[in-house]
Each structure stands twice: as C-alpha cells, then as structure tokens.
Amino acid sequence: MPLTRKEAVITTKVLSEALPYLQKFSGKTIVVKYGGNAMTDDTLKNSFARDMVMLKLIGINPIVVHGGGPQIGDLLDKLNIKSEFVNGMRVTTTEAMDVVEMVLGGLVNKDIVNLINQNGGKAIGLTGKDGQLLHAKKLHVTKKSPEMQQPEIIDIGHVGEVTRVNTQVLDMLSQSDFIPVIAPIGVDAEGASYNINADLVAGKVAEVLRAEKLILLTNISGLQDKSGEVLTGLSTQQVDELIADETIYGGMLPKIQCALDAVHAGVTSAHIIDGRVPNSTLLELFTDEGVGTLITNKKA
Fold first, then answer.
1. Is 148's pLDDT higher than 60?
2. Within 10 A of 233 (CB to CB), how many other CB atoms are there?
3. At 249, is the secondary structure helix, strand, or coil?
4. Are the C-beta atoms of residues 295 and 289 closer than 8 Å to each other?
5. Helix (H) or strand (E) holding 199
6. How many Cβ atoms from other residues are within 10 Å of residue 16's Cβ?
7. How many CB atoms lie within 10 A of CB 300?
8. What domains can you pick out in the chain, each with its CATH number?
9. Which terminus of the chain is less hemmed in, N or C, by CB atoms within 10 Å?
10. Half-sphere exposure of 54 (CA within 13 A, CB side)
11. How far apart are the C-alpha atoms of 188 and 128, rounded to whole Å?
12. What is the average pLDDT value for the chain, to the nearest integer?
C-alpha cells in the first residue's frame, strides 16, 4: 500500500534527520548490551537483529554483549538446582556454572547469532574463553551492617569481574563484515570459568576499545527524576548528584556506575535506553529525541 502524503513527509523527515548522525558515526564502534524484554519478545528480538544488521551495513561497527539471567533461572529450576542471590548477583556453584555456560554460551548466544544471520548479517558468537577474550578473576563480595565491627566477605562462587579484554579478537572481527556477539563468561589464569554481569562486560569492552557509544538496553524508559520524568542529556557530574540525593538507587546503581566508568575512561557517551521500544537502538542513534538517557563527560 502506498504511503499517504502525511506518512511520506514523516518518513522523509526521519531520513533527513538521520543524515548527520550517519556521517558522524560511520567507522565508529558501538557496544550494545542486549537484555531484558528485548531478549524475550519475538517482535523485539527480530527488531534488535535488524538494527544490528543495518548498523553494520551503513559502516558502523556494532559489538553485542548479552545477558540471560531469566533463561539461566528457568533451566536451573528444571534441574532442581536452587537459585540464590547476594546483592543482586547469582550465587554460582560449580554445578550452576555448568548451566550458565550451557545457557549463555550455547542457547542464548546461538539464538542471537542466528537471528542476526537470518536478517542478512554475519554474526559470530563468542564467550570469554574464545581467543582468551575475557580474562577474569573471582569477585569478592562484602556485606556491611551497622552492628558489624568488620565487613563480612561472602563467597558467591564462580562470579567474576573482568581484568583484561583481548582487543585483537574484536578488532579482527569488527574490521571485517562480522558482528561479534559476546556471552559474558570469563576465564582466569588457571582456566576456571566465571559468570560475569553483562553490563560490566559491555562497559569494559567499550572502555578498552574507546568506543563511540555504550548502549545499555533496559526495561525502563530511561533514568527518571523523582517525579517520574525521563532525564535525557546528563553530564557525569549531574549523574553523581542524582546518586547522592538518591534519585538513582537500588538495582539501577550498578548499571549507572558501569555507564559512568565507561564515559570517564574515554567512551564518548553512554545511553540507558528502553529496549521495549521496537528499533530502539536506531531511534536513539539517529533521531534528535532518542528513546532514553544520554550520559556524557560534558560540563554541567
């Protein structure tokens, strides 16, 4: 069905608006953390895959880092393995780590790779073990309370943090026609595997590559003020102030800290965007309004 005049005008405006962004970001690297509803809704999954293919086609180098917490939880339940969490992180026993590797490195990773390929792209799935991509160490968690004289150190098993990223692997893929899709599993010097928060992996990858952008897909419309209004362009100083006055709190803090660390380390900007919106990545990159919160190192 042909477009109406009104639809044609809107389409032309959007395409024209995108031109300066296309010119600005051509040849740049963008790291996208993929998770939340965007990973479970079929329409959104296909929309995300098409976004990644289009970015590569127009000369931008997307790198995808994905999560998979709900999928891990589902399989652990089916296997009658109890899930426990400390400070929002899954306690990962050796038995649970086997499931994590199976789900993240297998089921979820290959599903994303297949979707991108089905939409005309060339994706390659990786875990931190491939090409020694993600070097890791055990994450030590401390618990504090007013009645405790000293913080308690809690062992949460095979949960790690990134110590080094092998950029050679990513440079080789990004400079070709391939789109890297990374499962957040790291490995230490002894060969032990670690489950790592996908936001943290995406942030570290963006940092070491000095990416143009770090994009974190979430299940919210962006950072909100205390009245529920979405905050758009923010400086790192303004974000620090929002943390200090507890506008940003709880489960959102680690994600925001990841974005702040990336920007402080040289990433041009970080974005907290609504993954529930179809084509949200393209809307954030190529329209003036965007669909989330932009954080830069500009002066407030």
1. no
2. 12
3. coil
4. no
5. helix 198-209
6. 9
7. 10
8. 28-220+231-296 (3.40.1160.10)
9. N
10. 14
11. 10
12. 87
Stated pTM of the model = 0.91
Are 207 and 25 in contact by the 8 Å Cβ rule? The answer is no
Q: What is the mean pLDDT of residues 37-55?
A: 91
Pairing of strands 213-218, 29-34: parallel
For 258-271, letters b (16+ CB in 10 Å) and e give bbbbbbeeebbbbb
The residue type found at 174 is S
Residue with the larger pLDDT of the pair 53 and 219 = 53
The amino acid that residue 59 corresponds to is: G
Residues 6+ apart with CB under 8 A from 277: 283, 291
Strands (E) across the chain are located at 29-34, 61-66, 85-86, 89-90, 123-127, 134-138, 141-143, 152-154, 160-165, 179-183, 185-187, 193-195, 213-218, 233-235, 269-274, 292-296
Contact yes or no for 181/125 (Cβ under 8 A): yes
Q: Rounded distance, CA 66 to CA 267, Å?
A: 19
What contacts 267, CB < 8 A, 6 or more positions away?
Answer: 206, 207, 210, 211, 212, 213, 214
Both structure tokens of 65: 């880092």
CA dihedral 264, 268, 273, 278 (to 10 degrees): -160
